[in-house]
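We modelled each protein-ligand pair independently. The example shown here corresponds to the phosphoenolpyruvate entry; the chain sequence is given first, followed by the ligand as SMILES.
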Amino acid sequence: MSDRLCVEGGVKLTGVVKAQGAKNAALPVMAAALLLQEGALSIDRVPRLEDVTIMADLLRHLGASVEHVGGRMTVKVGGDLGRYETPDVLVRKMRASSLVLGPLLARRGRAILPLPGGCSIGSRPIDLHLKGLARMGANLEIRRGAVYATAPGRLRGSRIYLDFPSVGATENLLMAAACAKGETVLENAAREPEITNLAHALVAMGASIEGAGSGTIHIQGVDGLKGGSITVIPDRVEASTFLIAGALTGGEVTVTDVVPEHMEALLSKLEEAGASLMVRESSVTVRADGPLSGVTLKTLPYPGFPTDLQPQMMVLLCLAEGTGIIHETVFESRFLHVGELKRMGAKIELQGNTSIVTGTPILNGAEVRGTDLRACAALVLAGLTARGTTVISDVHHLWRGYEAFVEKIRQIGGLISVLDDDGKASFPVETPEAFANHQ
Ligand SMILES: CC(=O)N[C@H]1[C@@H](OP(=O)(O)OP(=O)(O)OC[C@H]2O[C@@H](n3ccc(=O)[nH]c3=O)[C@H](O)[C@@H]2O)O[C@H](CO)[C@@H](O)[C@@H]1O
Ligand SMILES: C=C(OP(=O)(O)O)C(=O)O
């Protein structure tokens, strides 16, 4: 797929979009299939995303059969449990590859995982995953940039306190503990809804888990897991991205098939900024009639404001009246979009991990570059409100996390098109003149 998008600003987004299944829930649930001793894991509402494809390839490499038909994925793990090494090329493409470490150790007694390394939003070590596994009796050695792990005999249950409620570490340890010998207690565990979804999947496979979704999770290890089925929860980040888009374009957007409770932090910030919300059982409508106002927010582990919405919310603050302040506390360098937004006329002052955003009535279309997944989404939102045309390069990041993103934006009236290598819009656009400069 092409790596550039062209966006024409000025349309108030209006309409209805259906949320996809959550990337961050689907990936750990897929990894959990490696714990199967018999049967198949059937996973519904699996989004069609680059990251899902990478995880499927990784599972196949490790001996699983993976079918993805419609929204349903079926994973079976055959008799060949010999493989335990994960290829560098896949692990480097996606940090969530590290989620196979816990299941491999628990089920196959050994694993080799190249260290995932840093990425543009931060250094992202996996020390908490490793510390927890060591507490469960794993021997871990880091050689030539890879973790060599063995669990002589079997992993054993333990009391593990996480220094930070890391999502990935909680997931890895939850999966490892599900098949360890005895009881594990995870303290200061992450409380994200994706953790609860993973626990439900494991319980459906025969695991014994209590307290997922709270800071303390009790897991009684069992001898082996069998087949089961689970539905992936709605993607709160994707859904929220569309709500922010509706609010900042002064339109009216409804997102369906969501769990509004999972989006509480975002919804309350949208309201505080002056947007009107209609929250129903499984859908949310946002409307913004007048100018929005700047708000202060701090990214935090769930139920705090999600770091994965920080770039998109920053765009809203760029266009709000007054000053908005964002403290990024989860990742150490998740502000690369700031420079790109400034190219569009945004007024943002960076002070360490704080951004001070002074609202301006309009942004201007520009040539900008997507630096990571959510930065790409934010630049699309900025382009949708800007005067003139915005061309965003390096949008391959977007396909990691948003299913049918271009189609969905168009469905609610956004003027957006994929550009091919010659700069031509690769499917019909409603206002050809808007894209003339790029043909
Ligand atoms: C696939 C997936 O679910 N990705 C999400 C997951 O990432 P991920 O699971 O990587 O996020 P973590 O919660 O683990 O990381 C949060 C912070 O803890 C640090 N840390 C983490 C583990 C560790 O062993 N040591 C350590 O220092 C990280 O560098 C980061 O600064 O949660 C993040 C925080 O909500 C989200 O932004 C990501 O979208
Ligand atoms: C940071 C994100 O994902 P990942 O952890 O997969 O890099 C994200 O979804 O915004």
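The chain has a mean pLDDT of 94.
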